[in-house]
Amino acid sequence: MTLAQGLDRTDPRHTARLTIACADRKGIVAAVSQFLHHHGANIIHSDQHSTDPQGGQFFMRMEFHLDGLDLAKEQFERAFAQQVAEPFDMNWRVWYTAQPKRMGIMVSNYDHCFLDLLVRKRRGELDVEIPLVISNHATLCGDAEMFGVPFAQVSVTKDNKAEAEQEQARLFREAGVDFVVLARYMQILSGEMLRGLAVPVINIHHSFLPAFIGANPYRAAFQRGVKLVGATAHYVTEELDAGPIIEQDVARVNHRETPETLMRLGRDVERQVLARAVKAHLEDRVLVSGNKTVVF
Amino acid sequence: MTLAQGLDRTDPRHTARLTIACADRKGIVAAVSQFLHHHGANIIHSDQHSTDPQGGQFFMRMEFHLDGLDLAKEQFERAFAQQVAEPFDMNWRVWYTAQPKRMGIMVSNYDHCFLDLLVRKRRGELDVEIPLVISNHATLCGDAEMFGVPFAQVSVTKDNKAEAEQEQARLFREAGVDFVVLARYMQILSGEMLRGLAVPVINIHHSFLPAFIGANPYRAAFQRGVKLVGATAHYVTEELDAGPIIEQDVARVNHRETPETLMRLGRDVERQVLARAVKAHLEDRVLVSGNKTVVF
Amino acid sequence: MTLAQGLDRTDPRHTARLTIACADRKGIVAAVSQFLHHHGANIIHSDQHSTDPQGGQFFMRMEFHLDGLDLAKEQFERAFAQQVAEPFDMNWRVWYTAQPKRMGIMVSNYDHCFLDLLVRKRRGELDVEIPLVISNHATLCGDAEMFGVPFAQVSVTKDNKAEAEQEQARLFREAGVDFVVLARYMQILSGEMLRGLAVPVINIHHSFLPAFIGANPYRAAFQRGVKLVGATAHYVTEELDAGPIIEQDVARVNHRETPETLMRLGRDVERQVLARAVKAHLEDRVLVSGNKTVVF
Amino acid sequence: MTLAQGLDRTDPRHTARLTIACADRKGIVAAVSQFLHHHGANIIHSDQHSTDPQGGQFFMRMEFHLDGLDLAKEQFERAFAQQVAEPFDMNWRVWYTAQPKRMGIMVSNYDHCFLDLLVRKRRGELDVEIPLVISNHATLCGDAEMFGVPFAQVSVTKDNKAEAEQEQARLFREAGVDFVVLARYMQILSGEMLRGLAVPVINIHHSFLPAFIGANPYRAAFQRGVKLVGATAHYVTEELDAGPIIEQDVARVNHRETPETLMRLGRDVERQVLARAVKAHLEDRVLVSGNKTVVF
């Protein structure tokens, strides 16, 4: 009996990742590792983090080979739920690398993050499927075609926003996406849209020290003479740009920059940071803890 | 005839630095370089920047050896003023490396920036004299003594702040400081104090992406789960932490940090950034352009 | 009268860049800036560097608008040669932004540097024309097509190397390239090939602290447990990987890496470093000084 | 009954760190975590790494509170040895934070790494005792005094090297040091000295891309025009500068540098890298794996 239909668990490339979040208390690591050991799982990587051993939250990620496992997928998960997860009141999930995650992408006109994701996927750097790209413009349709990725245009205006979002959410649900990446999508997703999608959404935005708010932050950063431009990738919540941060980075700039060169340098940081955030998400390294992340 | 009393201009270590800011127009570089060439100055380094060749601001820094100069210091400066600076309406100054700048320091209880400056000065990394340190506490008096630096304590309370600031400004004026560094001085300088000092003041403060405001920014940064902590060195203006930025940098942090480790990592960035800003200021590399800096 | 056929010198986007290298002596900056000023050139940027004011080398880059110039291109260059360059025995050149440089590219099978250059060119980040890509394999032919770039395959074997190089050099000469970029081209260019090309050649290679030599440096770096992987972009000389360095950078790695993840992280550094080197070269910011570079 | 004489295990600041290295096989994590759980240890942090789940090496670091422990120190360690360590043939050790490690320091004339360690220790950033500093010169004796650290001068000449090393090893043994840091100690330790010390020795040295060997690497780096200077901290083995790397970093440099400014910038990297390596060692985060390190 195989672990899942079409999944050969003796294939050495196939591993599973168990992620756990729960209230911290004694004995969690012992219970989990003993369960895995008992059922023949060969642990490759294991990470734990406790925000506070007294009354804090506990986070764990375990990656293990499937080839020694004595249970099929469904049995394994049911047994874990009963014997370990329920007693410790765990928020948990098992992901199988044999089933790559399905990533929806939303874009507008900027191509830098979008092309970076497509190229990395093609090169095998990101183990992911991309069943659908949705844009409010036609600009990047040709690029999607070049890389063989389905592209849908859903125009968004002031008047049709609610309707457009319903359509977008419907298309992503039909495409069966596991998460959505806003690769410089220049529209704010409503709370309704986020609930309609019902999957994690990752966004990338520019960041400065200090922060600049408003329509043209690169111009504001230019006028303030910043020496660094940065980018932040985060999970989207209803509060704009205030969701759990996954990854950040900066690049040095100097007095010679114009708003245009700041934007160009910013784009390079944006795509690097987004790619690292997406990779961490794909590898189940990011666990959300309130409004923060644990990135194993 | 010597360039200045006690200044031997044939000493190869002695150079002068001419800094210029003015409205941009054609012919500035030609006029300055011809003047220096005509009087035998041997240019070592030259930097120019124009914010916009049409109607922008022009900035220049020229460093030159004194040993070929055919004029004494006073004559040289008078001739430059008449022949070059006035026709172009320049804001200009000449600094002589034979006369190291005099740096006043203000500190409270944190020692990391303070000790870093003292050690770098002793090691010869900063070509500077430190005629006076003023603190509102006695904590760092022993450290000042260890490094042979005069230390004055001027307590500041809610009631005596205006008076205390007058005393501080008076002490710095008497000590003949060319600029003041706030090496984690935990009081805000009033506009009156800044005018009383009448010299540039450099401050260092922590910086985050996004920015956190209020009494305990490291705790706010911890609660938001930032992946970078940073520091910004800037010239002090009356508007708190909004003066021209000289230097910035960041350090990576992760989910394991506590507010305490964030502070510790932040301290390392703070002292590095402050040291670089002070060094750039000492070498006359920082020209202020409105609320921005040009750092050559 | 126009500066050159088809070149409208009143177009504000059109500037010229004058690069100069010569033995340092007094009066160079004055002579150059006076010449430009006299002929109505409006200087936008100016950089100088002297390796040693006594007996060293002097390097200069001046960028200026053409719209005030009182001479046509040929007259301007002839006058500069006679009045300035010859008296100072200068190695010099003027480049006009209206005539973008023509970049030849050599690739083998890795796509990361190649695609990065194509995407940046398309996005307008690199002001360059790409008249020809030559590969010893057919692998990247489709990518070249996607981006509308001419592609020629010239197979190289142990037996035909000299002949193949002659063919490659001939193709590049016919395509009129101003410089060639080895975007992970896995063959060593012979001295004869370099002389046959007669244009600058830029290479990118991985770099480690310490250095690892031989067939599989990422494996060697893995076995040594390095904490950084890096990349170096340099001009190619006959001595392998020992030409003047243009740009370098590193990325942090940890004990979890495999030789494969080291390579992947290394690729990201490689393409960033190569893109920065190519951009600096395109903007005439890189002046070669013996076996070093001055990068303005 | 207390865990150890003078050690109050109910003190929340007191934790223990268990480090383990052994051949990887199934069940290790389960065995260790169950043992700790059974004896009431409250795990705060736990890190594992396997070089290869089939036939590789396994590394583990567990930090736990002592206040729930049902055994005294000696009993606890004896039980662990019998029940867990021996069956799995583990190389293991328990460290108690209540007993800070004792660090010996060796210096010559450079003060930057030395002062950095002393200042960080005083500030509480490094939880360490410094029972002895040994130098082959008297230069830094005053600094040791300033910070209240015992200082011994042992001159080393070509003729007395073996004898001097014996004396140094004897002094360190008498001082009871747990490890030794070469804070820019300009002598090579012989294999005999390393065996005589019988504790880990950490060294810091400059690093470049590419590597430069010989008496004056900063001059060689200057002549090659490197764009980065770096530093590597590593454990000392008999093969010079080839021991397991703990930490590395770099700083950007440009064509303006002289050999002197390269050294100054290099010093800043050296002291940062050494401080991070020492901190990681103090917190038992560094496990040696052949000629590599695992840094948790």
UniProtKB/TrEMBL annotation, chains A, B, C, D:
One annotated GO molecular function: formyltetrahydrofolate deformylase activity
Pathway participation: Purine metabolism; IMP biosynthesis via de novo pathway; formate from 10-formyl-5,6,7,8-tetrahydrofolate: step 1/1
Residue intervals of the ACT domain: 17-92
Organism domain of life: Bacteria
Enzyme kind, highest EC tier: hydrolase
Keywords: Hydrolase, One-carbon metabolism, Purine biosynthesis
Family in the record: Belongs to the PurU family.
Stored HAMAP family: PurU
Descriptive protein name: Formyltetrahydrofolate deformylase
Organism: Deinococcus psychrotolerans
